[in-house]
């Protein structure tokens, strides 16, 4: 085998592949770009093949008649290959982040939980800290009712049950017996004192009318509690006399008596 033929067979023409990424909807423009790129590559390869054939012709082999490209050279011409990659418009859109929706759901759940908590505390704990806080924000305060009625406007009840003899002397009502002891009228306990096992209870009925009950063997309520005329405030075991004093603005009231049912009646 001659040296010229060895040279021609050893000649290698590199073939480059061009990838064209194309969007749908622009096929015509991208096809022109691909065709132009392939044409330029083929023209460059044909030119290199002609130069190779010319060199081979100078050594007696490689080119055909009238300078035509030899079959060996034609085999080295790059053919068109559809290597277009299509990228859909949907793939180019940024994907919605998964955690964005989870954050929105968590915030919505937190708001619902807060509303439910406020509703439940309003129903079951009206004096809770959270209700007090929101009441302060809205500037609404519960009105404080003050009972400023005079003692003469009130209808009092019995401090001892039927069957217990009660007496009134110099503004002091007394009785002795084993029984429950009642407040003459509803009110708020101001103080409870104990001396040698004997209890004294002071009750505020209105802003000016109060009562003091002494000689109790037991006291059922504490300072600050609300008491009623129909519920006992204490108990007497009958070992000592129980006394009841009524006051108007700190002055002892003496213009009253008790009837057969032990109800306190104002003297008019």
Layout: helices, strands, pairs:
Elements: H1 3-10, E1 21-23, H2 27-58, H3 71-74, E2 85-87, H4 89-92, H5 98-124, H6 129-138, E3 166-169, E4 172-175, E5 178-182, E6 187-195, E7 198-204, E8 209-216, E9 218-219, E10 226-227, E11 232-237, E12 242-248, E13 251-252, E14 256-258, E15 264-266
Parallel strand pairs: 1-2
Antiparallel strand pairs: 3-4, 4-12, 5-11, 6-7, 6-10, 7-8, 8-12, 9-11, 12-13, 14-15
Short description:
The protein is of the alpha+beta class. The protein has helices spanning 3-10, 27-58, 71-74, 89-92, 98-124, 129-138; strands at 21-23, 85-87, 166-169, 172-175, 178-182, 187-195, 198-204, 209-216, 218-219, 226-227, 232-237, 242-248, 251-252, 256-258, 264-266.
Describe the structure.
With 268 residues, the protein is an alpha+beta fold. The chain has six helices and 15 strands. It has helices at 3-10, 27-58, 71-74, 89-92, 98-124, 129-138, and strands spanning 21-23, 85-87, 166-169, 172-175, 178-182, 187-195, 198-204, 209-216, 218-219, 226-227, 232-237, 242-248, 251-252, 256-258, 264-266. Strands 3, 4, 6, 7, 8, 10, 12 and 13 form an eight-stranded antiparallel β-sheet that branches. The protein has a three-stranded antiparallel β-sheet with strand order 5-11-9, with no helix packed on it. β14 (256-258) and β15 (264-266) form a beta hairpin. It is rod-shaped. The N and C termini lie far apart (155 Å). The mean pLDDT is 77.
């Amino acid at each position: 085998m001659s040296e010229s033929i060895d040279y021609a067979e050893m000649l290698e023409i590199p073939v480059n592949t061009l990838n064209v990424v194309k969007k749908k909807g622009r096929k015509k423009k991208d096809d022109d770009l691909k065709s132009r790129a392939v044409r330029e590559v083929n023209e460059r390869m044909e030119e290199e093949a002609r130069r190779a054939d010319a060199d081979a012709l100078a050594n007696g082999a490689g080119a055909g008649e009238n300078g035509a490209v030899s079959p060996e050279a034609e085999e080295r011409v790059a053919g068109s290959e559809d290597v277009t990659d299509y990228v859909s418009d949907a793939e180019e859109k940024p994907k919605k982040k998964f955690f964005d929706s989870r954050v929105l759901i968590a915030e919505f759940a937190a708001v619902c939980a807060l509303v439910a908590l406020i509703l439940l505390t309003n129903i079951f704990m009206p004096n809770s800290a959270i209700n007090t806080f929101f009441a302060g924000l809205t500037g609404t305060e519960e009105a404080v009712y003050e009972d400023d009625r005079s003692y003469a406007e009130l209808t009092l009840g019995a401090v001892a049950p039927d069957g217990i003899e009660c007496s009134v002397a110099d503004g002091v009502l007394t009785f002795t017996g084993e029984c429950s002891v009642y407040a003459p009228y509803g009110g708020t306990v101001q103080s409870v004192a104990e001396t040698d096992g004997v209890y004294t209870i002071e009750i505020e009925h209105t802003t000016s009318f109060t009562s003091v009950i002494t000689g109790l063997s037991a006291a059922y309520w504490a300072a600050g509690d609300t008491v009623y005329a129909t519920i006992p405030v204490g108990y007497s075991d009958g070992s000592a006399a129980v006394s009841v004093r009524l006051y108007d603005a700190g002055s002892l009231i003496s213009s009253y008596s008790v009837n057969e049912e032990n109800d306190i009646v104002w003297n008019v």
